[in-house]
Amino acid sequence: MTQISKLELKALVERLSLMYFGKNFNHDVFFNGHLRSTGGRMVFPKIGSRILKQKVFMEINPKLSDEDLPGIIKHELAHYDIFLTKGIHRENDRDFQNLLKQIDAPRYSPLHSQAKSFYIYRCTAAHHHEYSRHRKINLRKMRCGIDGATLKLVAEKHLK
């Protein structure tokens, strides 16, 4: 988890922008704790189909380590640079991938989504119907959908 302040983040983004792209990045940069598996994102606000260039901003995931932070910032700045030259683009565009190789920026986020887990419930009636769910359920409220018997948690499995 990175320990830098918002001002230090802004200074780092401006320094990397000048170093790798020769352009000033005169937009806001924020930490966004709601980001999960992505390292960051460039946000291009729209009104209708028109993009508001003066309101563009960058969001960075605060869960990134200090070693991964410059790479993710370079990746997001590559989005910004391609946007200025070409307009809206996609991650798998050839020119975007070539630019990432030139500036040695990662193509994918070093963060991974949380490990998947699921719960297996079994009916307490004679037939022992099984249900697997990604979320825990309230055993006082939920019943077997087939015969109406109570359920019990049998296993909790974690996948990577």
UniProtKB/TrEMBL annotation:
SMART domains cross-referenced by the UniProt entry: SprT
Lineage: Bacteria, Bacillati, Bacillota, Bacilli, Lactobacillales
Any single Pfam family the record assigns to this protein: SprT-like
GO biological process: response to stress
Protein name in UniProt: SprT family protein
SprT-like domain boundaries: 7-154
Transmembrane segments: none
InterPro entries found in the cross-reference section: SprT-like_domain
Superkingdom per UniProt: Bacteria
